[in-house]
Amino acid sequence: MGAYLIRRLLLVIPTLLGIIIINFAVVQFAPGGPVEQMLAELRGEGQSTLGRVTGEGGGEIRGANSAERAGGGGGGGPVGTYRGARGLDPSIVAEIERSFGFDKPASTRFFEMMKGYLTFDFGRSLFRDRPVVDLILEKMPVSVSLGLWSTLIIYIVSIPLGIRKAVKDGSRFDIATSGVVLVGYAIPGFLFAILLVVFFAGGSFFQWFPLRGLSSPGADTLPFAQRALDYAWHMALPTLTLVIGGFAGLTMLTKNAFMDEIGKQYTVTARAKGNTEGRILYGHIFRNAMLLIIAGFPAAFIGILFTGALLTEIVFSLDGLGLLGFESAIRRDYPVMFATLYIFTLLGLVMQIVGDFTYTLVDPRIDFEARR
C-alpha cells in the first residue's frame, strides 16, 4: 500500500499542473477580463468603483490599485461614473494593464504564477488589494463548518436509513421514508433555505435563529460551552439546508447497494450456514456494499464543502469560499480564481487518495499493490 500511495501522490503533480494549464489557457481567450472591465467603467459603460474617475477624454484614475482593490467591487471610496469621451489615452490603458500585470506575455505570467504556487504564494487580489491567502483563510471557517457538519450528518443519517430501507424493502416504513426522501430530493436547496428563513429566522413567523455569521457579537468572551451553543445556533439552519438537499441521493444509493448485495449467492450461502441476519448484514454485506458509497465520498465532500454552499451562503449571509469564488469569477479576479481552483483541485485529488485508502480499511481483501 505504501508504494501505491507514493505513486498516487506523485501523480498528483502532473494532474494538478495539467488542470491549471488548461484553465489558464481558456481564460486567456475569455472576453471581459479585468482590464476590459476597467476600461468599460472608464468609458461609462458600467458603474465605476475605482474610487474617483474625472476629466474629459482621458480622465484621471485615483485609487485603481488601492481603493478599488480594497473595496472588492464597491467599498473602495466614493462611487463615480465616467460620462466623458469614449476614447481613452493609450498611456492610461497601458497603466491599467501594468497595474494588473497584463503587460507581460501570458507564458511569463503563467510561470511566475506557478513559481509562487510551489510555496503557496498566490499573490494579491486584483480588486481587494489583499493577499489571496489571507482572503482564503478568512473565508475558510464558514465553508469548512458548512461542509464538515453537513457531510457528517448526511452520512450519519443516510447510511443507517438506507440499510433499514433495504432490509425492510416494500414495507410501510420503506414507502413512508421514500416519500420523505423524494420530497427532500425534489425541493431545491435554495428554496428550502428561503423557507427556513421565512419561518424561523425573522421572516413572517418566528425569529428563533440568527441570519448572519457564525457567532453572535461578543461571543469570544463567553465560556466554551456557551460559545459552542452559540455556534450551533448559527449553524443550525444552513446545515439543515445542505442536509436536506444531500441526504436523499445517498440514502437511495445505500439502499440500492445493499439490496444488490442481499440478492447475491454468498448471502444465500451465509444464511444457509445458520448465520444470524445481523452477522450476514454487517459481517458480509456491509463491506461489499460500502465500497460504492465510499467511492462517491470525495466528490460529495468537495461538492458540499465548496460549490454546493454558494446559494446557502447567499441566503444566510455567510461570507465563505463559495461566495468568494463566485464574486471573483464575476469580477475576473484571476489570482483568487486560480488560487481557489488550485486549492480545490489539490484537495480533491488528496481526497481521492484518502478514498482509496479507506477501501482497504473497509475491505482488507483489496490490494492496490497487485494491480497492474
UniProtKB/TrEMBL annotation:
Residues that span the membrane, as ranges: 9-30, 142-163, 175-201, 231-254, 289-316, 336-362
Keyword Transport assigned: yes
Residue ranges, annotated region (Disordered): 55-76
Membrane topology: Multi-pass membrane protein
Superkingdom, natural source: Bacteria
SUPFAM superfamilies, sorted: MetI-like (SSF161098)
InterPro entries to which the protein is assigned, alphabetical: MetI-like, MetI-like_sf
Keyword line: Cell membrane, Membrane, Transmembrane, Transmembrane helix, Transport
Domain spans labelled ABC transmembrane type-1: 140-355
A Pfam family assignment: BPD_transp_1
Primary location class: membrane
Protein localization: Cell membrane
Similarity remark: Belongs to the binding-protein-dependent transport system permease family.
Protein name: Microcin C ABC transporter permease YejB
Organism per entry: Neoroseomonas terrae
Lineage of origin: Bacteria, Pseudomonadati, Pseudomonadota, Alphaproteobacteria, Acetobacterales
